Amino acid sequence: MTLIPFSVFLIFHVFTFGITEGQSPYNPQDNIALDCGSKGRKTLQSNRTWDGDV
């Protein structure tokens, strides 16, 4: 009786692992950095640009 929940759990994880194994990781098309509450644009020493939302 206790093997049924374990079997369902195991089958679910094997099934989801098989589906997600072949997918490539997410690569965003845009790199957006938002500095909440600030005005204008800031560039840090690492050459990363932050845009204000006000």
UniProtKB/TrEMBL annotation:
Protein name: Uncharacterized protein
Swiss-Prot/TrEMBL keywords: Signal
Signal sequence segment: 1-22
UniProt source species: Ficus carica
Domain of life: Eukaryota
